[in-house]
């Protein structure tokens, strides 16, 4: 799904709040914006997505696709959520300095992610109670077995990947 489609789903989920909320994208090469994100609340999500190489048109799927949603802390102005996609490099093009392909998630996964964010923001800024977790919480973290090539994973390279050993992860 494109950023415009993410934004449309975001608006649908967040329309009931009294304040206007917007979803913006964090671009991987904007180092000044990336530095400012260190002071934000963070929601990391990992899920199944498709990727398409921008160079050779190779396509692949991964159950370890990653995003981060950044939202304000209590003492910051509210209204903006920043979305950071973590890409993967194409295995066929490996060895060349190529750009990362961004993940393309299913609509249902995006909606679940945005609903979780909506709940978190509701608790932080609008005094809402966290809903009780169902006994079969399918959003819980699951260790997915299978190959993971850190050299192709942008989140690994930035210390943000769930598949990295805990002692090597960045805490941002």
TrEMBL record:
Coiled-coil blocks: none
One Gene Ontology term of the molecular function aspect: olfactory receptor binding
Residue span(s) of domain 3CxxC-type: 46-159
Keyword Cytoplasm: no
Keywords recorded for this protein, A-Z: Membrane, Metal-binding, Transmembrane, Transmembrane helix, Zinc, Zinc-finger
Membrane topology annotation: Single-pass membrane protein
One cellular-component annotation, GO: membrane
Alphabetical list of InterPro entries matching this protein: R-trans_p, ZAR1/RTP1-5-like_Znf-3CxxC
Example GO BP: protein targeting to membrane
SMART domains: zf-3CxxC
The name this protein goes by in its record: 3CxxC-type domain-containing protein
């Amino acid at each position: 799904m494109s950023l415009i489609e993410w934004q449309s789903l975001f608006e649908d989920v967040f329309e009931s709040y009294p304040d206007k909320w917007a979803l913006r994208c964090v671009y991987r090469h904007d180092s000044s914006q990336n530095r400012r994100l260190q002071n934000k609340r963070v929601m990391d999500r990992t899920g199944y997505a498709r990727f398409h190489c921008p160079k050779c048109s190779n396509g692949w799927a991964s159950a370890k696709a990653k995003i981060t949603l950044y939202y304000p802390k209590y003492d910051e102005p509210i209204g903006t959520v920043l979305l950071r996609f973590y890409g993967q490099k194409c295995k066929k093009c490996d060895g060349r300095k190529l750009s990362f392909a961004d993940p393309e998630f299913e609509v249902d996964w995006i909606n679940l992610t945005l609903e979780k964010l909506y709940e978190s923001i509701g608790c932080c800024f609008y005094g809402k109670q966290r809903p009780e977790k169902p006994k079969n919480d399918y959003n819980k973290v699951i260790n997915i077995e299978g190959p993971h090539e850190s050299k192709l994973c942008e989140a690994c390279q930035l210390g943000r990947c769930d598949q990295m050993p805990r002692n090597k992860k960045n805490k941002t």
